[in-house]
Design brief:
The chain is of the alpha+beta class and 175 residues long. The chain is 34% helix and 43% strand. The protein is built from five helices and seven strands.
Length: 175
């Protein structure tokens, strides 16, 4: 049995490899237009968020052709309502090579800076915000919703009707 592992591990290592490297860091990073005259009113969130964008090839067929650093930054910022920038940012690039699978990705990690005026204006225009975990995207999603959608979702959850709640969330997410 020990000889089997001694032979199989080097063979496995020939066909699967990967690495992650730190490509940079920044104190503040954003892809949004920021009004620095209001900088004193911005708030820093407590938790760190991560955004990732990846290009994937399976059997040399591109599933997504290009990994984009800007998309990774946007995904991280948009995880928090009113997010406008990232603070104390670390950027990584990851490459994974397997026999039939190749992935090149950018990951961004940082603390989100929010503009409270944006959040309150956005909330006032819609009335309600919901938040749920999207298991396909593997991320928390926060969306503004109308009072009608909010009450419909609340009723479905109160009645423990998972199908109705799922249908409401799918409809809201598609808007």
């Amino acid at each position: 049995m020990k000889k089997f592992f001694v032979l199989i591990i080097p063979i496995f290592m020939l066909f699967v490899s990967g690495c992650t490297r730190r490509i940079g860091s920044a104190t503040i990073l954003s892809t949004k237009n920021i009004d620095f005259a209001k900088f004193a009113s911005f708030k820093k969130t407590k938790e760190r968020v991560t955004g990732k964008d990846a290009a994937r090839l399976i059997c040399l067929i591109p599933i997504k052709a290009d990994a984009n650093l800007k998309e990774a930054i946007d995904k991280a910022i948009e995880k928090v309502p009113g997010g406008i920038a990232l603070y104390d940012v670390v950027m990584y690039q990851t490459n994974i090579f397997a026999l039939i699978y190749i992935e090149n990705s950018y990951s961004i990690e940082g603390t989100v800076i929010t503009d409270p005026a944006y959040v309150s204006n956005h909330l006032n225009s819609t009335g309600h915000i919901i938040s749920y975990y999207d298991s396909k995207a593997k991320e928390q999603v926060t969306l503004p919703v109308s009072e009608k959608d909010y009450n419909e979702l609340k009723s479905a959850l109160k009645n423990e009707d998972g199908d109705a709640a799922s249908n409401v969330l799918k409809r809201i997410a598609s808007l």
